[in-house]
Amino acid sequence: MPLFNISDLIWDDFIYPRSDRKQQTIDAYGEALTAGATFPPIVIQPVINYPASGTRLSEILLLILDGIHRWSAYKVLGLTEIKAVLWQEQPLDYATCKDDMLLESARQNRNLRITPSPCLIFTGFCQKQGGKSPTALNALCHLNASAAPW
Predict the structure, then answer these.
(1) In whole angstroms, what is the distance from residue 128 CA to residue 56 CA?
(2) Residues ≥6 apart with Cβ < 8 Å to 4
(3) pLDDT tens digit string along 32-54?
(4) Confidence of residue 150 (pLDDT cuts 50, 70, 90)
(5) DSSP state letters, 10-67
(6) pLDDT for position 78
(7) E strand or H helix at 83, and its extent?
(8) Taking the C-alpha atoms of 105, 109, 111 and 114 in order, what is their torsion angle to the nearest 10 degrees?
């Protein structure tokens, strides 16, 4: 799975229309990462003609289509790389394809849900801790399923 530099990835408000990121989700993902959990790769798309100040329209930039909370958790932890998959290999023209990318972002967000159970998110941690029960795991993580932010 290819790794991408976190600072090279762009959150575009049109493509990934979230009014805000849930800090509680970012914090929970950060705790999970610190505990040794792994997450699915985020989905990105190379684009040209991106209207950002300080960039040339011919420059290829990488937009996040899915995984803004995972990307944010990596950033908060000071990690520099994240696993990502490309939606399409070839760069798309932002001006003509932004609606298609918006639709794909919505599809990705609908289809890929990080499990609502903290016990499952922390499976890797649980296994590393000698197979402790989900109840013990919740106690260790100070979370329970009803309080999960996702």
Answers:
(1) 47
(2) 44, 62, 81, 82, 83, 84
(3) 999 999 999 999 999 999 988 88
(4) very low
(5) E--TTTS--S---HHHHHHHHHHHHTT---PPEEEEEEES---TT--TTS-EEEEEE-
(6) 97
(7) strand 81-86
(8) 140
In the chain, the domains with their CATH numbers are: 3-114 (3.90.1530.10), 115-150 (no CATH)
Rounded distance, CA 138 to CA 117, Å?
A: 10
pLDDT, tens digit (0-9, with 9 covering 90-100), for 55-66 = 888 899 999 999
Residue type, 148: A
C-alpha to C-alpha distance for 59 and 88, rounded to whole angstroms: 17
DSSP structural state of residue 4 = E
Q: Mean pLDDT in the chain?
A: 80
Q: Which two tokens stand for residue 91?
A: 């760069």
